Automatic annotation (TrEMBL), chains A, B:
The lineage of its organism: Bacteria, Bacillati, Actinomycetota, Actinomycetes, Streptosporangiales. It catalyses: alpha-D-glucose 6-phosphate = beta-D-fructose 6-phosphate. This is Glucose-6-phosphate isomerase. One of its GO terms (biological process) is gluconeogenesis. It is found in: Cytoplasm. Gene3D superfamilies: Jelly Rolls. Pfam families: GPI. One of its GO terms (molecular function) is iron ion binding. Keywords: Cytoplasm, Gluconeogenesis, Glycolysis, Iron, Isomerase, Metal-binding. Residues 30-180 form the Glucose-6-phosphate isomerase prokaryote domain. It is an enzyme of class 5 (isomerase). Pathway: Carbohydrate degradation; glycolysis; D-glyceraldehyde 3-phosphate and glycerone phosphate from D-glucose: step 2/4. The keyword Signal does not apply.
Amino acid sequence: MMTPTTTVPATVTAFDLVSGLSAQRPTLRRRLSAMAAMYADVEAARAQVERDDVLVYEFYDMGVPETSGDVAYGTSITYPGKVGDEYHMTKGHFHSVLDTGEIYFCLRGTGYMLMENPEGDWQAAEFGPGQAVYVPRRYAHRSINTSATEPLVTFFAFPGHAGHDYGTIETRGFRKLCVERDGEPVFVDNPKWAG
Amino acid sequence: MMTPTTTVPATVTAFDLVSGLSAQRPTLRRRLSAMAAMYADVEAARAQVERDDVLVYEFYDMGVPETSGDVAYGTSITYPGKVGDEYHMTKGHFHSVLDTGEIYFCLRGTGYMLMENPEGDWQAAEFGPGQAVYVPRRYAHRSINTSATEPLVTFFAFPGHAGHDYGTIETRGFRKLCVERDGEPVFVDNPKWAG
């Protein structure tokens, strides 16, 4: 017979509200070389990797139990930059359990949450400090930093059992790209989209 | 036969990172008169209500679907003040589905998250800007503002199906109170605890 667990210590983590980072834990880091093929201008991506394999984004996995009673959370930091005329972005993913949503709360920076569902809809929601974007169930989501200088820092939370499906986006991409035109971010069709 | 929903608009809400408030939605507001009996010094609470029925805290219910695939979220603002020597606090609650946790991310202020479970454990975790407190499953939780001047502003997220059980705490209270002694917050036994 198992002894019931009567004490579960609360996890307390200090994040810096400016950098988004915590000194208490390591982040998962994604350099450009890990996602060069996701950008439209693959040549520009490869040339940048040759010059400097820049850190595009980093985020936390806090190791919360993967149950529907728990809430996975952490911060995500996408650094400013472009690959060709395409803004720095996260890989983006569906949840393995497709019918799960996610909340992103922007602490700093400027950008977009790009979303699309398997049924054909896509949306982009603007991020600025204090903006909360609730990603509906079934929507793949990617953070995009459109600032020339500031990191995009968000605090996120999703159901513990949601899981991550990165493969679908790695294979077919998002329907839309976010590129700079006349100094402004615009969303254009992704010519490589393989939906 | 139902037509499948192929488009679910993302909910975007702007919160002020200093006040914690959003101009887009109303808050749920708890004045002292709604919780006077929860304070140890009920006479002090009633006298304060006579003078001025102060707003103790307010928070958002964003109306997220109550499913395990969704994440309820919002901000909570507990205003500074004391009732006798007991610091301003939220009512506190268990989740109706006891085996659900919650994340609180402090944006501003100073205080504690007070927690207790039915098995007899209690804990208090400090809140300061950037501190994330993960409330484990089975723990009732209450925010306490120990600052003399600043609101305690947190961003919270919990499983959509968790529900709220306020009645248990309203009936029996928390095991511990947070009171000021020599200018510092300390946790003492709640003489009225009815566990």
